[in-house]
Amino acid sequence: MTQTPQFQTGADVRRAARQGELTGQTSGLAAGFVQANLAILPRDLAEEFQQFCRLNSQACPLLDVTQPGSAAPETIAPTADLRTDLPRYRVWRDGELIDEPTDITDYWREDLVSFLIGCSFTFEAALLNAGIPVRHIEQGVNVPMYRTNIDCVPNGSFHGPLVVSMRPLKPADAIAAVQITSKYPTVHGAPIHLGLPDKIGITDILQPDYGDAVEVRDDELPVFWACGVTPQSVIMAAKPPLAITHSPGCMFLTDIRDVDLATA
Amino acid sequence: MTQTPQFQTGADVRRAARQGELTGQTSGLAAGFVQANLAILPRDLAEEFQQFCRLNSQACPLLDVTQPGSAAPETIAPTADLRTDLPRYRVWRDGELIDEPTDITDYWREDLVSFLIGCSFTFEAALLNAGIPVRHIEQGVNVPMYRTNIDCVPNGSFHGPLVVSMRPLKPADAIAAVQITSKYPTVHGAPIHLGLPDKIGITDILQPDYGDAVEVRDDELPVFWACGVTPQSVIMAAKPPLAITHSPGCMFLTDIRDVDLATA
């Protein structure tokens, strides 16, 4: 979580990405600024996907949606250019990964709609600020994520299981984490489950479907939050002719601050 | 939880108690009005006890404290008379129960200070209103309560273990219950623990220290709240020359409403 002086704001990180100076992950950069998941789809699928997000807002909290062809998210970073301002992208055709460029200008089309989706980095910062330890950050690994037996509310081409992230917490910390993350509905909000992983279809907590395994100690409960991997996995399963997402960990830095997303 | 027409308000219940028409428990009477635990101590112990309550506010949330010799709780029921308006009392000398009268006029002294302490009836009503089932209410028994291995913050003569009440909940309901009860800090607030009962010194969940055992199903977690029995057990252990409490379940009905205690 070291931070070089040039990354004081979200705009600083975007500028470095645009200039090709930053091509890796963004965790901990421009601390206090909201980071977002990116998903780009052709206009003819966009409305269906937007409705899917509305129906599954805990997994797919929409921070901003662009006009077709516009690369500027007007609400959260009006001066940004989504074609250049992320460190690295993934380009998918018919559900197959075809490229991982640092710039998507060559793939841009006037019918593309960009979705900016809340990310758990915001609530993790709030947990750390409250003195609640976050195991995968302590261990320097990716958060463990699991496909559950809970189906998202389907909409047209978009359907699939809810994916959750897991953080092991002592019971009193789990209670405080519910209180804290409830204040951040646009970055997944409160946990959806805790304890009893088998009740949501997780048979082995040490075998996550995505990310890295972390230890759950005998005085801890696994606490599960709806995860931003859900919309990505749902998009891949729908096999759209073209989709563009951020590369894992290489998020979009916004101009809004974590504190702006906290409800009263 | 049936309600006769004469018990529409807290004042109705107090009048019936005063007139000797109500001598039993108050659960479900004048629904929507806050019920309170009562503890009365001589003035020379009152300050020490009040500070104990402040230091342990989750277990001992003070709704009101009277002036010495006054039997009217000015904040929560200014027209009430605490000597006559509860259905039944318990009188203790040196920690020994000596009487269970329906009126304490004969025991009254000008140096007595009354403490009105929040009660979980208020948050249970909020849980039920949110569609969260409360097992001991479903089963028509008293809530199970346990002495924990967590010590209250001691103050002078007053010290002892935190007593907790337990309600078994499905994980998603437990998360919602944290959110709901967090809004009621003056009636014990959020749970203090969930899952893993042995970590707070509870070796057999089916053997409560007070109240009745209830089933914890395999898709449920035991959820623990600080309990109003804590101040009672602490007072008894301090063996004051005189103490008067409500008789179990025979609470004081206030003029304030459950909704008035909810924070934003």
TrEMBL record, chains A, B:
What Gene3D superfamilies does the annotation carry? PSTPO5379-like, PSTPO5379-like domain
Q: Does the keyword Lyase apply?
A: yes
Alphabetical list of InterPro entries matching this protein: D-Glu_cyclase, Putative_hydro-lyase, UPF0317
One Pfam family here: D-Glu_cyclase
Q: Does the keyword Zinc-finger apply?
A: no
Q: List the GO molecular function terms.
A: lyase activity
Alphabetized, the UniProt keywords read: Lyase
Family matches, as PANTHER family:
D-GLUTAMATE CYCLASE, MITOCHONDRIAL
What family does this belong to? Belongs to the D-glutamate cyclase family.
Q: What is this protein called?
A: Hydro-lyase
Q: Which organism is it from?
A: Symmachiella dynata
